[in-house]
């Protein structure tokens, strides 16, 4: 088939990879010279630990697909580094104990470590914490360079072409039943199937095709430091992440939220700490969550001060200078049970959007799932 994919983020790129691997010809449009949305403004985490039971099979399959991508495309920087969620109170430890006792803990790779054991896994952790939840299945990729690397690999197939700075303007049917896509350069592309992956851009063509989608947008703030002069052998999270990820829901988490307040700035900005070391040595650190639009166009300094303080508290040392700060916006399904929203605008025209903060984790799985659902 001739498949046209709109949107150069992780969802569009993952759908392109799934289609090319199944023998189809793919034309891939991105309105910017390079993807600039949440796809490149994230941690690059393949995050198994906090996913719900209903998401676990999909998440583990996506991790397999990322590992396969890492073998096919080494520049994506896939590494099975695992994670440590660092716990500072007895109530946080109780949440981890409950998670480790569940019947799916082995599939997640959960182990509860004391502080010394955690430092044995990650010697860079010389700060204050009492225990750590180790997740051996968590992994990481390089979000800023993964997509160009994947596209370059797909181009070697001879069945993939990427058109940057090209925006799809109109989608219609030809008299003989194929799909016609007109771009903003006036070029018309005739194809068999269109998959639109608009990310957080829910107006324009996405609304023309599928109406008002059942999605909300979420804004985040993150930062990156200069290279750290030692290896952070795992990704790390703090106890606030237990409150954020639905996989930790249970009696112990209810007790934690009833007994212990987050620090005021963390509560105000709905914060957790996640930290992953890039291959160049710098640390990507975040994040906040804002749900009420219109979003601010500037960034707030107070959350950055909080993230710096917590990271330094856990590492037991000063951070390198912060060299980048940014905000990003992603779209999220309003149905908490849905991994993504697929809207059929036409038998051969689909809009796929809304994985939320799981986009990088689940992208390869969602591309494969769409291919299966459409019989590609």
UniProtKB/TrEMBL annotation:
Gene Ontology CC: cytoplasm
Segments forming domain FAD dependent oxidoreductase: 2-373
Keywords assigned by UniProt, alphabetized: Oxidoreductase
GO molecular function: oxidoreductase activity
Domain of life the protein comes from: Bacteria
NCBIfam families tied to this protein: HpnW_proposed
Protein name (record): FAD-dependent oxidoreductase
Organism: Rhodococcus gordoniae
């Amino acid at each position: 088939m001739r498949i046209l994919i709109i949107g150069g983020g992780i969802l569009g790129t993952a759908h392109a990879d799934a289609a090319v691997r199944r023998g189809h010809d793919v034309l891939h449009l991105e309105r910017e010279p390079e993807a600039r949305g949440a796809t490149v403004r994230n941690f690059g985490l393949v995050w198994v630990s906090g996913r719900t039971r209903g998401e676990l099979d999909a998440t583990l399959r996506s991790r397999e697909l990322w590992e396969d991508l890492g073998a096919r495309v080494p520049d994506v920087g896939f590494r099975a580094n695992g994670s440590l969620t660092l716990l500072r109170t007895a109530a946080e430890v109780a949440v981890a104990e409950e998670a480790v006792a569940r019947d799916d803990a082995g599939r997640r790779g959960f182990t509860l470590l004391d502080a010394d054991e955690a430092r044995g896994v990650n010697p860079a952790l010389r700060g204050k914490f009492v225990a750590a939840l180790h997740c051996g299945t968590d992994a990481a990729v390089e979000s800023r360079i993964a997509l160009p690397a994947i596209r370059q690999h797909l181009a070697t197939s001879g069945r993939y072409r990427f058109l940057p700075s090209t925006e799809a303007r109109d989608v219609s049917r030809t008299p003989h039943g194929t799909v016609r896509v007109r771009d903003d350069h006036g070029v018309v592309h005739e194809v068999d199937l269109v998959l639109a992956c608009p990310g957080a851009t829910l107006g324009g063509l996405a609304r023309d095709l599928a109406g008002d989608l059942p999605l909300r947008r979420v804004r985040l703030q993150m930062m990156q430091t200069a290279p750290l002069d030692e290896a952070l052998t795992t990704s790390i999270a703090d106890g606030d992440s237990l409150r954020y990820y639905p996989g930790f829901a249970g009696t112990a988490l209810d007790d934690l939220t009833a007994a212990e307040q987050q620090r005021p700035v963390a509560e105000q900005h709905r914060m957790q700490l996640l930290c992953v070391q890039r291959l160049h040595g710098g640390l990507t650190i975040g994040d906040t969550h804002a749900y009420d639009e219109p979003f601010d166009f500037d960034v707030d300094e107070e959350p950055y001060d909080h993230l710096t303080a917590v990271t330094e508290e856990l590492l037991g040392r000063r951070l390198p200078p912060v060299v980048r700060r940014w905000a990003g916006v992603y779209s999220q399904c309003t149905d908490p049970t849905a991994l993504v929203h697929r809207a059929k605008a036409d038998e051969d025209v689909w809009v796929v959007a809304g994985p939320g903060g799981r986009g990088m984790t689940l992208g390869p799985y969602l591309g494969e799932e769409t291919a299966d659902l459409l019989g590609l």
